[in-house]
From TrEMBL:
Protein name: Putative udp-glucoronosyl and udp-glucosyl transferase
Transmembrane segments: 292-316, 553-572
Organism: Lutzomyia longipalpis (Sand fly)
Domain named Erythromycin biosynthesis protein CIII-like C-terminal: residues: 407-513
GO terms for MF: hexosyltransferase activity; UDP-glycosyltransferase activity
Domain of life (superkingdom): Eukaryota
Keyword terms, alphabetized: Glycosyltransferase, Membrane, Transferase, Transmembrane, Transmembrane helix
A Pfam family: EryCIII-like_C
Family to which the UniProt record says this protein belongs: Belongs to the UDP-glycosyltransferase family.
Length: 589
């Protein structure tokens, strides 16, 4: 089964169990108490201690599923293995049918005589046009408009009729016993299910290829005519019915003998308690091992929680100048920018020359290591190239392929660039980036404005911060067009506010009492010097959500005035009542 089928099956089973519990359990309990004298075990205990359950089913008609030894299939036990002789008139009606017979019975639940008139007449019109005869279980004395080829009776020996070779197919309500008899005798089934398990039974015959279902609400002349003609003309239904019949009949012993054997087995072994599964004592959670799975899934989280609540120092790759000021514990150490070279290294000669000789500056373009520029969709790549080709500045593009089709003269491509050192060059006008944390941090440190094309993760958030700080512009990847690129680049080149804000934020970022790497080393050594520095760990780690946020304290503080107000109100009420009684007493005297 696929997910939707399993979900539907689970919900149906759960709702059925709930319905059975709410609707039937107390009624069964009442019947049990009424008919069986004390002392007696509880009905629930009795259910759990059943040594044998006889199932009116067989795997050939359903789906293979694991069964305990005390769940015994006896499906078809009611079917006659040796066909009895039919009454002479029925035998003759069947034997002399040149094109066969359709047998029609809606069981004992819905009588044919109770069918709505329009549905009954629709059936009669279709039956009257058929080249075959029809045997209809009709519980009334007469059937108005009955065609000549239709024989009605209040009762038919159904099992023996279905065993007759002239029966073409069986129109039924889809009851379990009826579908079982049809299956045993290899007769295709046209079902009109009404309620209960009938729809499920017909669903199984349809899935197995020897049945057709007509919903009762859709029982019209057109639907009946189509279904009957399909059954009469398409041999696949009878062929599948014979195949399933052969599987159903192929059993080592007849079902009734099997039932007798197992009943006697239980009697011989004093109740055969060894057949009762220990699973009867388990609740839903235990039976499905949900507690075990939960525990196994919880272990990694418990380990993580125990680690996170005992961390002596946490090194944060951030700095308040690039984010928002927030309170930090002493063991939360900001080391943002620790990877940046404080003294830029010399660039390769060709790159140095490309940058130094750029009359109007250079744009540096890199999408990091997650999204390679070479993997850009062709239309977005070509849009970038057309815009770059019109620019008065040069472009350094980290391009991971050997060639870039349509590359303009002012664009230099390489599979790798020394990014940190390039961003430190004074000729870099701005940085086109994916918005990764390290890239935006390097651009901020060197005072370079940022044009971001975020893809996933924290990239959108990082670019949002640069944009809010006034030194960045964001283009959504889905909106990466020639028009949006051209506007953003021209805005960056012509509006000096971006470079000014970048220099301002850079000055804040650089203004630190020591470099981030030295700070990281100091605190790591501090923890080592002080045997784990447990004194840095906050006691808040031991508090739950309610305690940490003082919700219990606030609740009490809110409750006190409420209680005082209620007390004053109650006191006033009593004083007023006492005063009223005194006034009444004076008036009476």
């Amino acid at each position: 089964m696929n997910f939707c089928q399993r979900l539907a099956n689970t919900l149906y089973t759960a709702s059925e169990n709930i319905f059975m519990h709410l609707h039937y359990d107390h009624r069964q309990e009442a019947v049990y108490n009424n008919h069986f004298a004390d002392p007696k075990p509880k009905l629930e205990d009795l259910r759990k201690s059943l040594p044998l359950v006889l199932l009116n089913s067989h795997f050939s008609m359903s789906y293979p599923r694991p069964n305990l030894p005390n769940l015994v299939d006896i499906g078809g036990f009611h079917i006659n293995r040796n066909r009895k002789s039919l009454p002479k008139d029925l035998q003759e009606f069947l034997d002399t049918a040149p094109n066969g017979v359709i047998y029609f019975s809606m069981g004992s639940t819905l009588k044919g005589a109770d069918l709505p008139v329009e549905k009954r007449d629709a059936l009669l019109r279709v039956f009257g046009r058929l080249p075959v005869r029809v045997m209809w279980k009709w519980e009334d004395d007469a059937l108005p408009g009955k065609p000549e080829n239709v024989l009605i009776r209040k009762w038919f020996p159904q099992d023996d009729i279905l065993a007759h070779p002239k029966v073409r197919f069986f129109i039924t309500h889809g009851g379990l016993l009826s579908t079982m008899e049809a299956t045993y005798h290899g007769v295709p089934v046209l079902g009109i299910p009404i309620f209960g398990d009938q729809g499920m039974n017909m669903g199984k015959t349809q899935a197995a290829g020897y049945g057709i279902t007509i919903e009762f609400t859709n029982l019209t002349e057109q639907s009946i005519s189509w279904a009957i003609n399909e059954m009469l003309t398409n041999t696949k239904y009878s062929e599948r019915a014979k195949t399933i019949s052969a599987r159903f009949r192929d059993q080592p012993e007849d079902p009734m003998s099997r039932a007798v054997y197992w009943i006697e087995y239980v009697a011989r072994h004093q109740g055969a308690e060894h057949l009762i599964s220990g699973g009867q004592e388990l609740n839903f959670i235990q039976y499905h091992n949900l507690d075990v799975f939960g525990f196994l899934l919880l272990i990694p989280f418990l380990v993580i929680i125990s680690i996170t609540t005992s961390l002596s120092a946490i090194l944060l790759n951030s700095h308040f100048s690039m984010s928002y000021p927030r309170p930090n514990l002493p063991n939360y150490i900001e080391i943002g920018g620790f990877h940046i070279n404080k003294k830029s290294k010399p660039l390769p000669k060709d790159l140095e020359e490309f940058l130094d000789t750029a009359p109007n500056g250079v744009i540096y373009f890199s999408m990091g290591s997650n999204l390679k520029s070479a993997d850009l969709p062709v239309e977005k790549r070509d849009a970038l190239l057309r815009v770059f080709g019109r620019l008065p500045v040069r472009v350094l593009w980290k391009w991971e392929d050997d060639a870039l089709p349509g590359k303009p003269e002012n664009v230099l491509i390489r599979k790798w660039f020394p990014q940190d050192d390039i961003l430190a060059h004074p000729k870099v006008r701005f940085f086109i980036t994916h918005g990764g944390l390290l890239s935006t941090m390097e651009a901020t440190y060197h005072g370079v404005p940022v044009l971001g094309i975020p893809i996933f993760g924290d990239q959108g958030m990082n670019m949002g911060k640069t944009q809010a700080a006034g030194y960045g512009i964001t283009i959504e990847f889905t909106n990466l067009t020639e028009q949006s690129i051209s506007w953003a680049i021209n805005e960056m080149l012509t509006n000096t506010k971006y470079s000014e804000r970048a220099k301002t934020i850079s000055a804040r970022f650089r203004d630190q009492p020591e470099d981030p790497m030295s700070r990281a080393v100091y605190w790591i050594e501090y923890v080592a010097r002080h045997q784990g520095a447990k004194h840095l760990i906050s006691g808040g780690q031991e508090l739950n959500f309610i305690q940490y946020h003082n919700l219990d304290v606030f609740a009490l503080l809110l409750l006190i005035p409420v209680l005082i107000i209620l007390g004053i109100r109650l006191l006033c009420k009593k004083l007023c009542m006492k005063s009223s009684r005194k006034d009444l007493k004076k008036k009476y005297n």
